[in-house]
Every structure is written in C-alpha cells, then in structure tokens.
Fold this sequence. Notes:
Layout: E1 2-7, E2 14-19, E3 28-36, H1 40-46, E4 61-68, E5 82-85, E6 88-90, H2 96-99, E7 111-112, E8 124-128, E9 133-134, H3 144-163, E10 172-175, H4 180-186, H5 200-209, E11 214-219, H6 224-232, E12 234-242, E13 262-265, H7 268-279
Parallel strand pairs: 10-11, 11-12, 12-13
Antiparallel strand pairs: 1-2, 3-4, 3-8, 4-5, 5-9, 6-7
Bound molecules: zinc ion (ZN) (2 copies).
Amino acid sequence: MERDCRRSEGSFNFEIRSVPIPEPKPWEVLIKLTVTGVCGTDVSLAAGYVGPTCDILGHEGVGHIVALGSGVDPSIVKAGDRIGVSWVRDACGSCPCCREPGGETRCLEQLNSGRKLDGTFAEYCVVPARYLLTLPDDKANLPDELVAPVLCGGVTAYKALKTCGATPGEWVAVVGAGGGEEFCLLSGAEAYFDALEPDVVASVKNTTTGGVGVRASIVTAGSGKAYQNGLDVLGSLARWFAWGYRPLPRSSVSILWPSSTEASGSWEPWWGRVRRRLRH
Ligand SMILES: [Zn+2]
Ligand SMILES: [Zn+2]
C-alpha cells in the first residue's frame, strides 16, 4: 500500500489515505516519488476552477523508476533512473501543436497530472514511457527539492523569457514576481516596484525606459490588476505573457488592449478562455 494526499470532496482540505500502489500498464513506468512541489494550479484545481480533477493532485514530482511496464524497452529506460513528473504527462503527438517543437503544451488531447491522471501528492505514480522526463543524477548540485518546483513554475517562467523576443539590453517586467524586494533583487532583478504604489505603471516605464515602456511583460499573478499592469507597462510592438494561471474574475478587469501588442498564455484550455474574454 502507498500513502497519498487526496483532495477532500468539496473543500480545500487534504487528507492522507492509503491506496494501492498503481500497476504500470504495458507502456508505462512506475515511479517512486521522493518529493513534490505544490503549485498555484493545484489550488485552482482543488477549488474547481478547472473542472473535474483526479483525487490525487500534484505535478512537480521527482523520483526514481522502480518498475517497467511489460512493453517498455529496458534499453531506453531502466529501474533507478531519476525522473521528473510534471504537468503534461502525455500528448497526442500528431496534432499541429505537437508537431511544433515545444508545442505540446497547446495540445488539446494532453493528459495532465492531477487533472486526467493521478498526480504527485503520493508515494508512487505511473508515467507513459514515451513522455518520460529523465533528470541528471547529480543530486549534490541538483537536489530533488530544488528540481521539483522548476518542473512547473521554473520552466514556465523560463519559456516566457526564452520566447519574449527581448534582446540584450531590453527590459522585461515580471508582474507578480513575489518574494519581496530583497528576494527579487537577489534573484537578479535590476529594479523592483511595489505593485501597491499608486503610480506603479509610470514608475516602471520611467525608471526602465524613460517612459517608453518595456519589451515584454510576464504576468505571473492571477489577478486582474496584474494583467492590466502587465499591459500598461509595455512599449510598442511588445509581448504580453499571461502566465499567472487562474480564471480572470469577470468584474475585476477591463483590459485595454494596445493594438501593437502580441499575447501568449501558458496552457491552452485556460488561455482560450482568456482569448475569448479579450474578444468581448
Ligand atoms: Zn504548476
Ligand atoms: Zn497534440
């Protein structure tokens, strides 16, 4: 038996239950998890914002393979391999999104941890062998507890930076970076602004670009004010990334959309809702 942390019906409470260790199907491997992160998306899932979920949430897991399904080629993966278990557990592999490098996060058939498959708030989980994320076995420099949150929040923010189009010397605003001034500056930020400051948008634009506006903004907070601020700090031909996962409260945001701005979101079903909202 394994112990897991399941969502209690109709509430945010979690409880520890004993459930059978899952049996890997022929195309799956069984992972024994050592750690899992807790993401804001888990809270959104638990709250029912994203529709039906599995009982076991969690998508920032790290562990090792302990068993292979009968059809898994042991020359490709083996027991003991260190594995990361993230939000996308499998994708169709054949749609236009999947055929784009890195585009499987837009696949409408994707299977997500905690949403379509039991997640990582457990001691064991199964993962399709074709979508395994094998991690370097360098635990001294990359301990499990540091790798786990990178599997979702880390790679999400990194991908936004990678694709934002900013070139060296241009400014990128991370709206809702969290952690406070000291943490942000220690993490490499060159300037910090308190979102509660009355003229925060003008402060950002004036301090960074003499009032012109930044090249891109990455909105990591799920609030209407953060979404609007993320747009308002932009210059022309800029990019806006809606990375803070949560449905926008209908009453708290009236987005004024600059015509020269490109937009992108982190997960297709949710991003589609934002796009529809923006059209109305
Ligand atoms: Zn996440
Ligand atoms: Zn696909």
